[in-house]
Amino acid sequence: MRFKFPVMAIALEVAMIALFGIFIEYDTEQMNLHLPNTTNSTKVDRFLELHSLFQDVHVMIFVGFGFLMTFLRHYGFSSVGINLLIAALGLQWGTFMQGIVHSHGKKIHIGIKNMINGDLSTVTVLISFGAVLGKISPSQMLAMTILEIAAFVGNEYLVGEIFKASDIGASMTIHAFGAYFGLAVAGVLYQSSLRKGHKMETSAYHSDLFAMIGTLFLWMFWPSFNSVIAETGEEQYLAIVNTYFSLVACVLTAYACSSLVEKRGKLDMVHIQNATLAGGVAVGTCANMQIHLYGSMLIGSIAGIVSVLGFKFLTPFFTTKLRIHDTCGVHNLHGLPGVVAGLASIVAIAMGACKKSNMAMQAAALGSSIGTAVVGGLITGLILKFIVRGQPSEDNFFDDSIYWEVLNSVLFLNL
């Protein structure tokens, strides 16, 4: 850790600086549009409009995802801190990779859309991080960020440019992809001590409360996430409204289902932290389609139920039978709702809600996202395990103290 991680982090940043120096320039058109004498205000207004959505997504990345993973009582520093680390690397690498693909080898002129694409690339890694949280080193996460974003960009190009599929909220290309990529990596890195539950894999009242802060930030800004890449005002309007009502419906069914499946009808905070967000994922692919408000609410309601049932029944099955330990339950928040999103888009197109894609291409996009994620995750897991290495020992899983100075926080953690 003392030498390997710093050398790796510095080397990657030097590489990013070199790549940006060679391939990326300012967007001079955007700069000129902001001059006092300019008469064309349309692009300026569009830039400022997208910047507010860009900031919303930023809040989701650094606050929402970071705090959502703080539920582990002895792993809060790493949940928020490593989240910041890999997000910082991912934003740079994602901006470059997306720019190279979409500029077709020409110079990349950096604009607000490039920065948004970099953000979206990073979200994929943060989702996968949830599956391996507490069981992977910072050095391995840096390597995983580079490898996963490369795979993500390839799949996104296939889905968007070859299949011409519609996925406005990126529920297939980001959420489903990130979840199944992370699960594949987690399967490769699986340790037998996780089968019956690790002694450090516990939460506390205050850690669950911090995680709920992440949930609330994600919930509030999810309409911005699903609408940030919309091309027209109509699509953006539909994406915001459909996402909003899918989320509110999801909350009710998630609470109801949590009470039904738990003993004595009590609510499980893990369900509430995660399943209440599933509606935002499930409606994402068809958020810009005219599915009617009752349609978006139906999708959200289904997502809330599916997510809670996943936490209750599938997560234990994955751990004990499939040897895949999913720390944060990303399969239930991102994977299953991502599949629901793909299926919902197929139904919506069959009902005439969208003319831009067809059912076959939507199905191909869903299959491609899951297939590429699983294969890419397995390869990445093998690279992390046998080449990068540095995975903490089983006794040190879910423990901040192996990577952080925690002397002043021990008393607080043990309250």
Automatic annotation (TrEMBL):
Transmembrane segments annotated in the record for this chain: 7-26, 53-72, 84-103, 172-190, 202-222, 237-257, 293-314, 334-354, 366-388
Gene Ontology CC: one annotated term: plasma membrane
InterPro entries hit by this protein: Ammonium/urea_transptr, NH4_transpt_AmtB-like_dom, RhesusRHD
Subcellular locations according to the entry: Membrane
Catalysed reaction, written as an equation: CO2(out) = CO2(in); NH4(+)(in) = NH4(+)(out); methylamine(out) = methylamine(in)
A Pfam family of this chain: Ammonium_transp
Primary location recorded for the protein, binned into one broad class: membrane
Membrane topology: Multi-pass membrane protein
Key words, A-Z: Ammonia transport, Glycoprotein, Membrane, Transmembrane, Transmembrane helix, Transport
A molecular-function term among this protein's GO annotations: ammonium channel activity
Domain Ammonium transporter AmtB-like: from-to ranges: 18-389
Complexes and interactors: Homodimer. Heterotrimer; a RHCE monomer interacts with a RHAG homodimer. Component of the ankyrin-1 complex in the erythrocyte, composed of ANK1, RHCE, RHAG, SLC4A1, EPB42, GYPA, GYPB and AQP1. Interacts with GYPB (via the N-terminal); this interaction bridges the (RHAG)2(RHCE) heterotrimer with the SLC4A1 Band 3 I dimer complexed with GYPA.
Matching PANTHER family: AMMONIUM TRANSPORTER (PTHR11730), AMMONIUM TRANSPORTER RH TYPE A (PTHR11730:SF32)
Family: Belongs to the ammonium transporter (TC 2.A.49) family. Rh subfamily.
Protein known as: Ammonium transporter Rh type A
Organism of provenance: Crocuta crocuta
